[in-house]
Amino acid sequence: MRGLFVTGTDTGAGKTVVAAAIAAALHARGERVAVWKPVVTGVDEAADGAGWPADHELLARAVAGDPQDVTTATFGPAVSPHLAAELAERMLSLDVLVRAARATAAHADVLIAEGVGGLLVPFGDFDVRDLAVALGLPLVIAARPGLGTINHALLTIEAARAADLRVRAVVLTPWPDEPSVVERSNRETIERLGAVEVAILPPASPAVENLARAGATLPLDGWIGGW
């Protein structure tokens, strides 16, 4: 199975948009794409005013799938997954999540898996990094382009490599049409100090066609690896 695991430097760094753009681009060129996110929290929150749906709904939309098939567990409160599970009196299991990911990918050519928050976000007695290691897919890190991103990106790269995860790239998003000197410097500095490819993803909308166009600008064939 070919695929990618998309993580972020933290919550709100754009990883769902990056994952959806990648999936939509692959789907648009005829690949059988499976998308999967282990846990979605905050489903009781009001809809995004900009028209962005819940994470599992956006991922499903990217591949013309069913949101119920995208995630293994959903929780109402917008809190970390370990607290959401605790509040719901449920236990999240690494083995169960890995089996769910593999079952989701069983009839596809490629799996795009998206984490929750950053790499060290806990599910309970394991974290997102443990899940990424268990799945064995190459890693793409979504990060903001502006001030503060250097430290967040380099810490995430370091945490990933400490667990022998293969970091394919950092994706800075949303990348403006006219980047500032700070944004250009951030890209160059992360690439140099992190010894990693730093790609850019332009601003996207929830429309599948727009996501696919944005994702098609990324060098996906060089990133996607197999189990």
Identify the notable features of this structure and list them briefly.
alpha/beta; single chain; Rossmann fold; 39% helix; 227 residues; globular; 8-stranded mixed β-sheet
Topology (elements, then pairings):
Elements: E1 2-8, H1 15-28, E2 33-40, H2 55-62, E3 71-74, H3 81-87, H4 94-105, E4 110-114, H5 128-135, E5 139-143, H6 149-162, E6 167-172, H7 181-194, E7 197-200, H8 208-215, H9 220-223, E8 225-226
Parallel strand pairs: 1-4, 1-5, 2-3, 2-4, 5-6, 6-7
Antiparallel strand pairs: 1-8
What does this structure look like?
The protein is α/β, with parallel strands linked by helices. It has a single domain, classed as Rossmann fold (3-Layer(aba) Sandwich), CATH 3.40.50.300. 39% of the residues lie in helices and 18% in strands. The chain has helices at 15-28, 55-62, 81-87, 94-105, 128-135, 149-162, 181-194, 208-215, 220-223; strands spanning 2-8, 33-40, 71-74, 110-114, 139-143, 167-172, 197-200, 225-226. Strand 6 (167-172), helix 7 and strand 7 form a beta-alpha-beta unit. Helix 1 packs parallel to helix 2, helix 1 packs across helix 8 and helix 4 crosses helix 5.
Could you write a compact summary of the structure shown?
With 227 residues, the protein is an alpha/beta fold. The chain has 9 helices and 8 strands.
Rg result: 16 Å
Q: Which percent range fits the helix content?
A: 25-40%
Number of domains: 1
Taking all residues together, what is the mean pLDDT? Answer: 94
Determine the number of helices (DSSP H or I, runs of at least 4 residues): 9
CATH homologous superfamily caption: P-loop containing nucleotide triphosphate hydrolases
Tell me the distance between the termini: 5 Å
Stretches where pLDDT falls below 50 for ≥5 residues? none
CATH architecture: 3-Layer(aba) Sandwich
CATH class: Alpha Beta
Oligomer class: single chain
Overall morphology: globular
Task: Classify the fold: give the CATH topology.
Answer: Rossmann fold
The portion of residues forming beta strands comes to 15-25%
Describe the sheet with the most strands: 8 strands, mixed
> How many beta strands in the DSSP annotation?
8
> What is the N-to-C order of secondary-structure elements (H for helix, E for strand)?
EHEHEHHEHEHEHEHHE
Class derived from helix and strand content: alpha/beta
